[in-house]
Design brief:
Layout lengths: L4 H19 L8 H14 L3 E6 L3 E7 L8 E7 L26 H18 L5 E7 L7 H7 L2 H4 L4 E8 L7 E3 L2 E4 L1 E10 L3 E2 L9 H12 L1 H6 L6 E10 L6 E2 L2 E10 L2 H21 L3 E10 L2 E3 L1 H15 L3 E2 L9 H7 L2 E7 L18 H15 L4
Parallel strand pairs: 3-4, 3-5, 5-16, 6-15
Antiparallel strand pairs: 1-2, 2-4, 6-16, 7-14, 8-12, 8-13, 9-11, 10-12
Helix pairs in contact: 1-3, 1-11, 2-3, 3-11, 6-8, 9-11
């Protein structure tokens, strides 16, 4: 079954929703306008149940098929939040909120799932229940975890759950996926080094926190180069170096480092945390200083269930004729929390030759909408067939 003709007909309407959401971006859990729009549309479409406030500002729409004898329920998820980036596209529907834009395509994800919901409400050509999941706070706020902790899976009886993300650089409307570990675990750290400040002309009277922290930055690179198995994957990046003094002639008493760790296995995650702590402790001791390390585990590895990956790939092939093999991604994705609770899969949808995500010139490609909507709908119809 190729791209469903109904979505070609609906494309102007769906892209209109997408551009409206794009023009009104909202961060994290502050998706009040977007959540209200989603709630309104789901009600207009005739969803059997529309529930807000799941995971603070998340919205769930329930659509029952022409029969429910299978007793099965499939969840489909889209994220709604934007990013704290100043848009530089010059589009007529560009962000109207300074410093905030849909730089990751969540406007497109939301619009496509709305389009699929409208189609499924019209046709109901399935045996079971489809649950449309609209999630806030994917961009660092762990909205997926919040929705799960609010009882999403049990409350709506979800058996399998599927998600999608647009992917610049792949042909618009094409698909790619992989089983097992797919997106990396994303941890963050803050390291506070404390020395003894003083005049820059008298370094012998100080414990130089800048030299101490600089040595740590270099030593932390050995976690990857000398501690990790070379065939495994690990990223340790120090991304911020801030001193307590900004003067030219003052050795500061403290320096704060910040950074991120990306891993694809529990073993590498444990190794990275342990080595960061031991390297910083040793460095501080060597310089006669002090250190405090705060290591926070954020999103877990997002891992596709093998069987459900096959279902998702088959649905993609039925829509576009092919489904490519996706590469591992060291970025994070909080759909991981949903996949920890239920079997399912996450697929990539080509966005064409666009700017990369999280870039001020990025824009979701509306040409991909019919394929994305068709895949969402096909997941329901293929997993909940009418006998």
């Amino acid at each position: 079954m190729p791209v469903k003709n109904r979505f070609a007909e609906l494309l102007p309407e769906i892209s209109g929703w997408r551009r409206d959401i794009h023009h009104h971006p909202e961060l994290l859990y502050e998706t009040h306008r977007t959540s209200a729009l989603v709630t309104e549309k789901l009600g207009e479409f005739g969803c059997d149940e529309v529930v807000g406030g799941i995971g603070r500002t998340g919205v769930v729409g329930v659509i029952r098929g022409r029969s429910t004898a299978s007793g099965r329920t499939i969840g489909l998820r889209a994220d709604m939040d934007a990013l704290p980036i100043q848009e530089e596209t010059g589009l007529d529907y560009a962000s109207g909120t300074p410093g905030t834009m849909h730089a990751c395509g969540h406007d497109g994800h939301t619009a496509m799932l709305l389009g699929a919901a409208k189609y499924l409400c019209e046709t109901r050509n399935f045996d079971g229940t489809a649950v449309m999941i609209f999630q806030p706070a994917e961009e660092g706020g762990a909205g997926g975890r919040e929705m799960c902790e609010d009882g999403l899976m049990d409350r709506f009886g979800i058996h399998e759950v599927y998600g999608m993300h647009n992917w610049p650089g792949r042909p618009a409307g094409s698909f790619a996926i992989r089983p097992g570990a797919f997106f990396a675990a994303t941890d963050v750290f803050r390291i506070d080094f404390e020395g003894r400040g003083g005049h820059a002309a008298k370094p012998q009277e100080t414990v130089d926190s800048v030299v101490m922290a600089s040595q740590a930055v270099l030593s932390l690179q050995t976690v990857v180069s000398r501690n990790a198995d070379p065939v495994d994957r690990l990223v340790v990046s120090v991304t911020s170096f801030e001193t307590s003094s900004k003067a030219f002639n003052v050795i500061p008493s403290t320096v704060t480092l910040k950074g991120t760790v990306r891993t694809l296995s529990p073993e590498m995650r444990d190794l990275a945390e342990a080595r960061i702590n031991s390297i910083c402790d040793g460095t501080a001791a060597a310089f006669d200083g002090k250190v405090n390390v705060i290591y926070e585990r954020n999103y877990p590895v997002m891992s596709n269930s093998p069987t459900e990956t096959g279902y998702a790939a088959e649905a993609a092939r039925s829509v576009s004729g092919d489904c490519g093999d996706a590469n591992l991604v060291m970025g994070g994705e909080d759909f991981a929390f949903m996949l920890e609770e239920r079997p399912g899969a996450y697929i990539l949808l080509g966005n064409g030759d666009s700017a990369p995500v999280h870039h001020p010139e990025y824009d979701f490609n509306d040409e991909a909408i019919p394929s994305g909507c068709s895949w969402y709908a096909q997941m329901v119809e293929s997993r909940l067939p009418v006998i």
